[in-house]
């Protein structure tokens, strides 16, 4: 499955839900890991990566 933002599993923009879907993981686990990694990297790089993925990842056609 191509990397796309999720419309069903979204909290903000669906980036973590889309990553979870493409990896076959639970969306909650991906969110926890992403927030943890962002906090360990002083939060700014994680937020910047999220915004870049939000802009670059196409939105899924699934509702």
Q: What can you tell me about this protein's structure?
A:
The chain is mainly alpha-helical and about 60 residues long. The chain has a domain at about 15-55. Helices cover about 55% and strands about 0% of the residues. It contains three helices and no strands. The chain has helices at about 15-25, 25-40, 45-55. Helix 1 (about 15-25) crosses helix 2 and helix 2 packs across helix 3 (about 45-55). It is globular and about 35 Å long. The model has no long low-confidence stretch (mean pLDDT about 90).
List keywords for this structure.
63 residues, mainly alpha, 57% helix
Proportion in helices: 55-70%
Terminus-to-terminus distance: 16 Å
Number of helices: 3
What fraction strand? under 5%
Largest sheet: none
Measured on Cα atoms, how large is the radius of gyration? Answer: 11 Å
Structure summarized in a few sentences:
The chain has a domain at 15-56.
Task: Write the topology of this structure.
Blueprint: H1 15-23, H2 27-40, H3 44-56
Helix pairs in contact: 1-2, 2-3
């Amino acid at each position: 499955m191509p990397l796309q933002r999720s419309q069903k599993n979204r909290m903000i923009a669906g980036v973590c839900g889309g990553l979870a879907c493409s990896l076959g993981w639970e969306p909650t686990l991906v969110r926890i890991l992403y927030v943890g990694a962002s906090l360990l990297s002083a939060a700014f790089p994680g937020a910047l990566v999220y915004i870049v993925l939000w802009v670059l990842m196409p939105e899924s056609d699934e509702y």
